[in-house]
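Note to self: keep these together.
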Amino acid sequence: MYRLIEADHYINKKILIVGGGDSAVEAAMGLANQSGNQVTLSYRSERFSRIKERNAKRIEEYAKSGKVRVLFNSNVLEFKPESVILDLGGKQQEIPNDFAWIFAGGTPPHAFLKKIGIGFGARDVTLETSKAAKQAEAERKQLSLSATAPSR
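Structure:
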């Protein structure tokens, strides 16, 4: 996906964010704050160079705490149905993946994305994940009520 609209709709997911600007960093941190998410931020350069100081400090904290796995000098080689293959400094690494967002400028690079195997469809993934998130929240509340109810 190219835009993150509602981070709270994505829970218990393995997520890849590609990019090194403020939008990518903010999306990674927003998704990392959602329950159960495992977020990886892939950036092709050796360090962030064009993000706001506030975001630089925050993403460093997220990386140190393990909330976001930051991979510098990395590039996406291939998207598979349940994983992504990255080039990490000349070595390939495959990581599990449910969703990917690519933040590569203001306009989506459609030709490039199609070339590497990304399809574009009419599926509303945000709506689908919203339903899953609501169901998980309802189940969590039910468990919480069951745990606090007096036993007979």
